[in-house]
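Record 1 of the preview.
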Amino acid sequence: MLQPDFIQPRRELNQMWVPVEVPCSSQPPAARREDAGRVATVTPDCGPVGETLLVKVTGLWPKTETNIFWQNPIGNPLMLGEGEIRMLTQMTDEEGALTTVIRVPTTALVAAPDPTLPQFHRVYFEQARPIGGYELSFIGNEVLKGALATVSMALMATGLAVLFAVPLSFLAARNLMSGNPVTYAIYLVVRTLLNILRSIESLIIAIVFVVIVGLGPFAGMLALALHSIAALGKLYSEVIEGIDPGPIEAIRATGANWLQVVRYAVIPQIIPPFTAFTIYRWDINVRSATVIGLVGGGGIGFLLIELIRVNNMRGVSAVFIAIAVIVIVLDYISAKLRERLV
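->
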């Protein structure tokens, strides 16, 4: 834990991969790939989870340790070593060839929406040799990608939530919708829906979307967006209810309709607080995205639970540091933005 896995000595990489279909289709393509004089094959060409496969590769660096790992269709690496928690490492011969036996990982289809649908996975062969200096390690790269995915997921969820929350907030504002029985009924329906959605924790929503669309950032983004729609809709509507009623009464006295009242009397008063609440919600979503990843919602949280599962404490330490840095930096940025815009 005191030695986070961020950087490593700079290395030259030699990487080769071959596609494998899991599970088998009626006519699986040949599991063979050629690239720059290197040839990799898998026998048989496909197989279900747990199937034993014979993998061969030629054209690699001779007498060099080679890491062999599995990659599922969404790009997540899976270990092929003992207990599927360790890297499988083999040595190439004098001619740069390697032959070994692997098994299709038991978690190969965890991210698949339909485990019976054939999909292309990859078997990777990776070699490395030092060339001086330092670079991000494999875990460091994964932490960086997870951090960017987490921030992007939160940003997309907030943007999508704003698109729906803004119009809903006007329908959930009592001072705008209490003019007649029809609009008041709409107000009650919208307000009730927002309260129901807001009462369901985003983590529970994420589990539902993981079941519907599968593992990954998309499920996490949808969960955050749905919860943010309810939260922002509630906050926005309360801002609208708290505005100065004078301009509204003045515009109504001229015979203006509902849309004109909103355009000329409401919107000029709500833009600054709307902006502040939106930035604040983005800040909240970044922190929530980390937790949502623990149930398969993608981002750095998903990487964290995977590292805990394989007992990689150096990687866990790196993730903890990255999460702390993300929260601190974004909290500072959001505070400065709110200070300038409000």
